[in-house]
């Protein structure tokens, strides 16, 4: 209700600083303005906008709807709320409208399938509108996978476990709308009837299980249980606690039995043998049962008087035993009592183990690794399986499990590391004896090796070469190498390939071209694919070693034959060989060349000697001495070029053919 007190005057004098004139407003004009402004002033005085929506909260009820709620504040009139949503990662938007009044306050709104997809990011804004105006809330953002929720599981049975005291078995039904594609993680709470404190346990169950069954035990007789479930992979689906259910255990329980195993190590220098004992709770033992310690005693099989006892709180123990066979016994104990005795026989060093496993193989089936084997001993129905990663560490983590009444063993892939090689061994067990193991290697998941093999070239020939490579280290294989492929190609030619099995680490290439450059690389392959090693280049030879030896032998043989023939010829005709090798040199002292033209020749020689400017040392005949007669030749000045020129000039002039008296032509040899 708007109440205004108005005072009017018959005249009003309004004075403005910038206008010196005085205006007089008459009474009629004032009443006209007052009647026109009065409804408008009352309207503004009575207007009340809706309260701003706050505390917006959204929940995605898995496979049902998305519901958002908010705090509307105090409302005085009819108000309509509109929740505005953007989805599909901001590409689409829609609205959800609801209404409320003073008698019915509905501050929530829901979006339904099929316009809800996961994963997705939503923005939610709430708009409140009444007759007086509109007001909007703050913008809120939501990741759909973080706000997903399903209905709680339903507990339908809480019963005692017969034969095992102080333990109950809880059975429940998996939520119907829980994601089918993921395993569920459960949280279980329980307490005694008279207690106010809850004990909580978290664990996972397989996605294929519909009715879940889990045994639990603790310190009370009566239990009030309730459980909750959430998705373990992908979508983080949460839910509320189920309704409580009551059950009762039997009166008293003792610790459950143990499973005992051993790892035999090589004998030491002093003849003693290290034996590592491993143990764990028997299958089906309560999860919450706390063990305080273990008592272990052992003695030689033929002498119980040499019993030794050890107390420990660890899960393993290393003993140093003699060469004979031993018996090892142990128990666990807690505040309720002692467990049944577990015994194991350690064979003697010289004892031979029986063998019955003929073949074993491992394969992948869905999300499990399956190991199967065949046995020739029908009376063996218990087996011990060992597995550990094939690593270079001195003490790898060893896991073990017993199997009865079956010749196969399965393990979930998520319990093994992908791309790791595992050594798996199966031991046959007959009564108190352990047979010879059968071992294989397997991968839970294979991949392409991290790098290719290192390659090198050896024994390069004319048309052949040997390619060798090294094994890829175990840590980089990521799978079992099934084969190697050798790729080679001549420079500018066609490429070829050869495939060999994984046991071969070298291969000889043949039928190559002589004196040709080649490129070669080796690819290692697993079931997931292959990877190439580094490429290397080589060039074939022009001649092989055999060809070089053959050519050398032929040349050397020919020379040897020639020498032999020469020696034989020399022995047969020594004078001819001497004449050929060491021919006779004419004696200049006995030469008749100086008497060919008598006095005329001598005059010309004297005339030529006086006119010739050549060095006299080049025209002087140096004396030569022979070892036979030691002749000394006087110096003679003879110019053989002029002599010959003169001789041919005279013959041309006379036209006569002169015979030089039938004397033997002799040549002056050069003296050293």
From TrEMBL:
<feature type="region of interest" description="Disordered">
    <location>
        <begin position="651"/>
        <end position="672"/>
    </location>
</feature>
<feature type="domain" description="Fibronectin type-III">
    <location>
        <begin position="449"/>
        <end position="543"/>
    </location>
</feature>
<comment type="function">
    <text>Associates with OSMR to form the interleukin-31 receptor which activates STAT3 and to a lower extent STAT1 and STAT5. May function in skin immunity. Mediates IL31-induced itch, probably in a manner dependent on cation channels TRPA1 and TRPV1. Positively regulates numbers and cycling status of immature subsets of myeloid progenitor cells in bone marrow in vivo and enhances myeloid progenitor cell survival in vitro.</text>
</comment>
<comment type="similarity">
    <text>Belongs to the type I cytokine receptor family. Type 2 subfamily.</text>
</comment>
<dbReference type="GO" id="GO:0030154">
    <property type="term" value="P:cell differentiation"/>
</dbReference>
<keyword id="KW-0812">Transmembrane</keyword>
<keyword id="KW-0677">Repeat</keyword>
<dbReference type="InterPro" id="IPR015321">
    <property type="entry name" value="TypeI_recpt_CBD"/>
</dbReference>
<dbReference type="Pfam" id="PF09240">
    <property type="entry name" value="IL6Ra-bind"/>
</dbReference>
<keyword id="KW-0675">Receptor</keyword>
<dbReference type="GO" id="GO:0042734">
    <property type="term" value="C:presynaptic membrane"/>
</dbReference>
<feature type="domain" description="Fibronectin type-III">
    <location>
        <begin position="52"/>
        <end position="153"/>
    </location>
</feature>
<dbReference type="InterPro" id="IPR036116">
    <property type="entry name" value="FN3_sf"/>
</dbReference>
<dbReference type="InterPro" id="IPR013783">
    <property type="entry name" value="Ig-like_fold"/>
</dbReference>
<comment type="subunit">
    <text>Heterodimer with OSMR. Interacts with JAK1 and STAT3.</text>
</comment>
<dbReference type="InterPro" id="IPR052672">
    <property type="entry name" value="Type1_Cytokine_Rcpt_Type2"/>
</dbReference>
<keyword id="KW-0472">Membrane</keyword>
<keyword id="KW-0325">Glycoprotein</keyword>
<dbReference type="GO" id="GO:0097696">
    <property type="term" value="P:cell surface receptor signaling pathway via STAT"/>
</dbReference>
<dbReference type="InterPro" id="IPR003961">
    <property type="entry name" value="FN3_dom"/>
</dbReference>
<keyword id="KW-0770">Synapse</keyword>
<keyword id="KW-0732">Signal</keyword>
<keyword id="KW-1133">Transmembrane helix</keyword>
<keyword id="KW-0966">Cell projection</keyword>
<keyword id="KW-0391">Immunity</keyword>
<dbReference type="Pfam" id="PF00041">
    <property type="entry name" value="fn3"/>
</dbReference>
<dbReference type="GO" id="GO:0002376">
    <property type="term" value="P:immune system process"/>
</dbReference>
<keyword id="KW-1003">Cell membrane</keyword>
<protein>
    <recommendedName>
        <fullName>Interleukin-31 receptor subunit alpha</fullName>
    </recommendedName>
</protein>
<feature type="transmembrane region" description="Helical">
    <location>
        <begin position="548"/>
        <end position="571"/>
    </location>
</feature>
């Amino acid at each position: 209700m708007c109440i205004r007190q108005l005072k009017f005057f018959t005249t009003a004098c309004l004075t403005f600083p910038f206008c010196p004139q005085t205006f007089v407003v008459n009474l009629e004009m004032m009443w006209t303005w007052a009647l026109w402004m009065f409804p408008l002033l009352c309207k503004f005085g009575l207007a009340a906008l809706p309260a701003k929506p706050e505390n917006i909260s959204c929940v995605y009820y898995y496979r049902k709807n998305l519901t958002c709620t908010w705090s509307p504040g105090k409302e005085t009139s009819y108000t309509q709320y509109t929740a505005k949503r953007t989805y599909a990662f901001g590409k689409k938007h829609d609205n959800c409208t609801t209404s409320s009044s003073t008698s019915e306050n509905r501050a929530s709104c829901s979006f339904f399938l099929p316009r809800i997809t996961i994963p997705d990011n939503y923005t939610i804004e709430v708009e409140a509108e009444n007759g007086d105006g509109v007001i909007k809330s703050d913008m809120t953002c939501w990741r759909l996978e973080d706000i997903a929720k399903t209905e709680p599981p339903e507990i339908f049975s809480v019963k005692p476990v017969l034969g095992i005291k102080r333990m109950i078995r809880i059975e429940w039904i998996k939520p119907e709308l829980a994601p089918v594609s993921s395993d569920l993680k459960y949280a279980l709470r329980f307490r005694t009837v008279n207690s106010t404190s809850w004990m909580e346990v978290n664990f996972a169950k397989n996605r294929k299980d519909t009715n879940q069954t889990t045994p639990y035990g603790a310190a009370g007789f009566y239990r009030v249980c309730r459980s909750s479930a959430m998705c373990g992979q992908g979508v983080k689906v949460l839910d509320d606690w189920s309704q409580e259910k009551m059950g009762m255990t039997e009166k008293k329980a003792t610790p459950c039995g143990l499973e005992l195993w051993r790892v035999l190590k090589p004998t030491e220098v002093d003849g003693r043998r290290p034996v590592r004992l491993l143990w764990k709770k028997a299958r089906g033992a309560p999860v919450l049962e706390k063990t305080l310690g273990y008592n272990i005693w052992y003695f030689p099989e033929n002498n119980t008087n040499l019993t030794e006892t050890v107390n420990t709180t660890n899960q393993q123990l290393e003993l140093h035993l003699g060469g004979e066979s031993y018996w090892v016994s142990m128990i666990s104990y807690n505040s309720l009592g002692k467990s049944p005795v577990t015994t194991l026989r350690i064979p003697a060093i010289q004892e031979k183990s029986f063998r019955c496993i003929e073949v074993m193989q491992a394969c992948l089936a869905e999300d499990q690794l399956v190991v199967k084997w065949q046995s020739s001993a029908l009376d063996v129905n218990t087996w011990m399986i060992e597995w550990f990663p094939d690593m270079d560490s001195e003490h790898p983590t060893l896991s073990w499990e017993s199997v009865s009444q079956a010749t196969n063993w399965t393990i979930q892939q998520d319990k093994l590391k992908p791309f790791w090689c595992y050594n798996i061994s199966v031991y046959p067990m007959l009564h108190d004896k352990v047979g010879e193991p059968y071992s294989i290697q397997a991968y839970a998941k294979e991949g392409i090796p991290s790098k290719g093999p290192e390659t090198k070239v050896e024994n390069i020939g004319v048309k052949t070469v040997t390619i060798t490579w090294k094994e890829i280290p175990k840590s980089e294989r990521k799978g079992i190498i099934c084969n190697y492929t050798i790729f080679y190609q001549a420079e500018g030619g066609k490429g070829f390939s050869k495939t060999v099995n994984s046991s071969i680490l070298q291969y000889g290439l043949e039928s190559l071209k002589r004196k040709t450059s080649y490129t070669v690389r080796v690819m290692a392959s697993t079931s997931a694919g292959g990877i190439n090693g580094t490429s290397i280049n080589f060039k074939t030879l022009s001649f092989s070693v055999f060809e070089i030896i053959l050519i050398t032998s032929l040349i050397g043989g020919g020379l040897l034959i020639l020498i032999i023939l020469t020696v034989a010829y020399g022995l047969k005709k020594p004078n001819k060989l001497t004449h050929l090798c060491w021919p006779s040199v004419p004696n200049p002292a006995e030469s008749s060349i100086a008497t060919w033209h008598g006095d005329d020749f001598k005059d010309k020689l004297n005339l030529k000697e006086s006119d010739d400017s050549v060095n006299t040392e080049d025209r002087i005949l140096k004396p030569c001495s022979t070892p036979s007669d030691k002749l000394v030749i006087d110096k003679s000045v003879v110019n053989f070029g002029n002599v010959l020129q003169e001789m041919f000039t005279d013959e041309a002039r006379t036209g006569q053919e002169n015979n030089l008296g039938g004397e033997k032509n002799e040549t002056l040899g050069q003296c050293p």
